Amino acid sequence: MSGIVGGNLGRGSGLIKAGAIDDNSVTLAKMAGLARGNLIYGDTSGDPAALAVGGADEVLTHDGTDLAWAAAGGGTALTGSTNNTVTTVTGAMKNAFGGLLNFQRHWTHPVIHETLVDLLRIQKQIHPGVFAVTDGTFAGSGPGPRAMEWHEKNVILAGEDQVSVDAVSARMMGFDPMSIKFIRLAHEAGLGCGDISEIEIVGEDISDVDWGFQSGNTFASKGQKLIYWGPLKPLENALLRSPITPWAYFASNLYHNEYWLRFIGKKRIEKAMKTEWGVLFQSY
């Protein structure tokens, strides 16, 4: 009979020579039982082995040799590396401010640092993981994001810990990461690592990197801070949360778009367009 060798298998060795088994003749019903969700793969000896099912929100990965389960990424957060008049630096955590909040997000500016930490908590709840990429090819110093002075730095930062990505970015700009409130609060809350001495940095050695960036202020941002944290604080609701609120948008646009962009910003844009990155941008 095809596929049977060795006589009475009930009393013999029970072995069947591979050559005596027809191709495609072994059905799933003839295989040994396998726990639900397990996978069959080749082990280090070249023998079949069972890979146990992974955990919730894990995906199957391969390192070029073996299979393994790893945490799934919930997405990629893309951001730039600049200074900011309110938070000192803009990076991975600040990216959520524009991405998760609506047009009334300016209401949270007085508690912006606490807001960024809360947004990071939300992301950790709604995503199994977020991989942050910070573009430092052009980095901004000064009163960002609208009136900064660009510098060509040709750096890309990436990591699954947004706090660490921002800490490294801040350190390269010349700031002490733990002196920046939202980084320190996130670190203390266990949402990531903001202590540069505890962060494993793979790639460029940044121990001697200091770009000497400054956050700075514009005329408009000085007015904001007088309302958020200064003597105009008692008028905050009337000025920023009432029917006359559009005056703030008008004043900001008047300063940034009509004055700053026309007399300062356009010259910086023209200069940036002459760089390799500017030429590449114009080719799109």
Features:
284 residues, alpha+beta, single chain, four-stranded mixed beta sheet, two-stranded antiparallel ribbon, 33% helix
Describe the structure.
There is one protein chain. This protein is α+β, with helices and mostly antiparallel strands and 284 residues long. It has a domain of 142 residues. The chain contains eight helices and eight strands, in the order ββββββααββαααααα. The strands form three sheets. The protein has a four-stranded mixed sheet. It has a two-stranded antiparallel ribbon with strand order 1-2. A hairpin with a 4-residue loop joins strand 3 and strand 4. The N terminus is likely disordered.
Shape: elongated
Please give the alpha-carbon distance between the first and last residues. 70 Å
Give the strand order, joined by hyphens, for the main sheet.
Answer: 6-5-7-8
The gyration radius over C-alpha positions equals: 29 Å
User: What number is the mean pLDDT?
Assistant: 84
| Class computed from helices, strands and strand pairing | alpha+beta
Query: Beta-sheet strand percentage?
Result: 15-25%
- Low-confidence runs: 1-12
Number of helices: 8
Write down how many β-strands occur, each being a DSSP E stretch of 2 or more residues. Answer: 8
